[in-house]
């Protein structure tokens, strides 16, 4: 596993009444695995795989960040970036 790199800008995702500030790929993976309201679908799976690839050093942190944003939009979640 590679060193965790903080994103240039965090992503704020609102799930229910809770605001989640996601600062890096590890936090994104945790949010997807533990708190995500729509488990399944192409965007969700793509975001999980993007996070895993980033954590393994195969893809960039930016790639994972963009996949998380896409999954949030697909799940109709509020996103601040």
UniProtKB/TrEMBL annotation:
Gene3D superfamilies: 6.10.250.730. This is DUF982 domain-containing protein.
């Amino acid at each position: 596993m590679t060193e965790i790199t903080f994103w240039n800008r965090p992503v704020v995702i609102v799930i229910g009444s809770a605001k989640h500030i996601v600062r890096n790929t590890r936090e994104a993976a945790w949010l997807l695995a533990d708190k995500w309201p729509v488990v399944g679908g192409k965007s969700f799976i793509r975001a999980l795989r993007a996070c895993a690839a980033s954590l393994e050093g195969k893809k960039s942190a930016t790639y994972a960040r963009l996949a998380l944003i896409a999954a949030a939009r697909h799940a109709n979640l509020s996103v601040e970036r």
